[in-house]
Amino acid sequence: DGGITxxxxxxxxxxxxxxxxxxxxxxxxxxxxxxxxxxxQGLRLIYYSQIVNDxxxxxxxxxxxxxxxxxxSFPLTVTSAQKNPTAFYLCASSTYAGLTEAFFxxxxxxxxx
Amino acid sequence: AQTVTQSQPEMSVQxxxxxxxSCTYDTSESDYYLFWYKQPPSRQMILVIRQExxxxxxATENRFSVNFQKAAKSFSLKISDSQLGDAAMYxxxxxxxxxxxxxxGKGTSLLVTP
Lengths: 113, 114
Fold this sequence. Notes:
The complex is a heterodimer.
Chain A: E1 4-7, E2 10-13, E3 19-25, E4 31-38, E5 42-51, E6 54-57, E7 64-66, E8 76-78, E9 87-94, E10 103-104, E11 108-112
Parallel strand pairs in A: 2-11
Antiparallel strand pairs in A: 1-3, 3-8, 4-5, 4-9, 5-6, 7-8, 9-10, 9-11
Chain B: E1 3-5, E2 10-14, E3 19-21, E4 24-26, E5 32-39, E6 46-52, E7 60-61, E8 64-69, E9 74-79, E10 88-96, E11 103-104, E12 108-113
Parallel strand pairs in B: 2-12
Antiparallel strand pairs in B: 1-4, 3-9, 5-6, 5-10, 7-8, 8-9, 10-11, 10-12
């Protein structure tokens, strides 16, 4: 079955450490996205990528980095520069940005301990 | 700039009744898409309904329908014959045809009571 997979479901990080969240899709989608969800804040865009080897900052990119070396994969690294990383992170993909609905992964809950 | 506003943080409806969730948005572009997404306790985002701005006819998907008022920049979601499984967070979202990603409202938490 086609879909979008995020791993791990839960992730714990010590302060000062970088951590990478995985996002893989087998839907042959060109565009991929990372959103952050906080209580009462809705979903806020961190980074997006419309094609391989290209990505753009979203509204809250500071303290995060991404790569898009393969069409199927769009990992997100939460760096030590992110001051408040505890949140729920959602990855999404779509056929082409602006034209079709986005499909979402099941999310990763990141907690800083 | 674009903003999506959901003015109802929480709503409650009795089973089998009808409820309407509000959404307003602001954009300077004429071509865009509007969406309602549902996020149940599992936190999996599920598309409920989609509306193309160039279409005057309101979208309908089974018990879900929208009231799209382009001039007023309003996009409300009506859920008819509410079921316990409809309990979830509902997010309104906008995406420009020329844009790059969905812009979400802050969500409305819907409680369905027996």
